[in-house]
Amino acid sequence: MAPTRFLPGLAVLCLGAVFARAIELTVGFNHLLVAIALGFVLANGVGVPDRLEPGLATHKLWLGAGIVLMGASLTLETVLEVGGLVLLVVVCVTSFTILVVELLARNVFGLADRLGSLLAAGAGICGVSAVVAVAGAIRAREDHIAYAAATVLLFDAITIVVYPVVGDLLNLSGIVFGVWAGVSMFSTGPVVAVGFAHSEVAGQWATMTKLSRNALIGAVVLAYASYYARSGGGGRPSVRTLWDEFPKFVLGFLALMLLASAGVFSASQLASIENAYSWLFVLAFVGLGTEIRLAELRSTGLMPAVVVLVSLLVASALSLALLTLLL
Amino acid sequence: MSFDRSKLDVTAVYSRWTTLEHDWQSVVVGAVVVAVAGAVRIPW
């Protein structure tokens, strides 16, 4: 396959990014949310021609690269200051969310076990990536994967709009809003978007919190694989799963954080790196917007959506209360 | 001849790139940007 097939979609991402930035400079709307809105309008209003698809699909690459570069704008001291506390909150809220979704799905709403597990992974860890990773480990049915993925995407779309409004209404500080979004929203892209839409500090903490959560995916996949293997019919669990499912770009993020903490970069280099990740995020969010397809969201089942809604409300309210007290 | 050689190089690099896991591709892009930021001022 020729690399040139990516060019039309990449050109659209670049144009959208420049346009979103221009809107912010002229009208004052947040460029990240404008970027998502542009992608959304393109996908649901005009429609995405086939030749744009390969380039638009690169948005995950730009998001990952932006996160790697963000490591340079943080120092080890900042992370160590409240990092332990945040890690504790991440582990507690993630375990709590998985438990609540599993209990509601199995005991209250009577959903199939595997569908409940996919919803729990999507809500507890990292959205659609977690759904797909766990689906492979437990040999989930195709229709269950589609249901769970659609449910996660539905709540991604809702939380992108609701979280910034709640953050403004409650006048949350950057760190509280960032950690709250990172610990309770679903997919990485929307978390980074609403974080940076609130403030630079919120964006950095939202991303770090979400990365800690994503790093748990290997352990969760392993746990689910073991559980379903014991009950028969599941995939064979292996310790290698931990490494296979680990989000490797976290290593790039950590490497840059260590280099920046060691004073390797000059002030102008750091400014350039920060500008670079800002551009990469806008590019990524234009592409992210094109992934929100109304037609697919309509295919979400009512019961899975109710299960995830209840768990999101509980986890979100509890984590916000906890963070307001602790930070 | 030299054009053919450079085309071969690009093809080889692209082939290696496509075999990389997505997460590692992000790390490579990040490393390239850091290298560029060392030499050029990136505006916002």
The H-and-E topology of chain A, N to C, reads as HHHHHHHHHHHHHHHH
Number of helices of chain A: 16
> Which percent bin holds the helix content of chain B?
over 70%
Runs of chain A in which pLDDT lies below 50 for 5 or more consecutive residues are: none
Main beta sheet of chain A, described?
none
Helix content of chain A: over 70%
Q: Return the structural class of chain A.
A: mainly alpha
The residue-averaged pLDDT of chain A reads: 89
What is the strand tally of chain A?
A: 0
What is the average per-residue confidence, as pLDDT of chain B, rounded to a whole number? 83
Radius of gyration of chain A: 19 Å
Shape estimate of chain A:
globular
Largest interface: A-B, 28 and 21 residues
Class from helix and strand fractions of chain B: mainly alpha
Sheet with the most strands, sense and barrel status of chain B = none
Please compute the radius of gyration of chain B using only Cα atoms. Answer: 14 Å
Low-confidence stretches of chain B: none
Q: Which of globular, elongated, flat, extended, rod-shaped describes the shape of chain B?
A: flat
- Report the sheet-strand fraction of chain B: under 5%
Topology:
The complex is a heterodimer of chains A (327) and B (44).
Chain A: H1 7-26, H2 31-46, H3 53-56, H4 59-70, H5 76-108, H6 113-138, H7 142-169, H8 174-184, H9 188-198, H10 200-214, H11 217-230, H12 240-245, H13 249-261, H14 267-290, H15 294-297, H16 302-326
Chain B: H1 2-19, H2 22-39
Membrane topology (chain A): Multi-pass membrane protein
Subcellular location (chain A): Cell membrane
Transmembrane segments (chain A): 32-49, 61-79, 85-105, 117-138, 144-163, 175-199, 211-229, 249-270, 276-294, 306-326
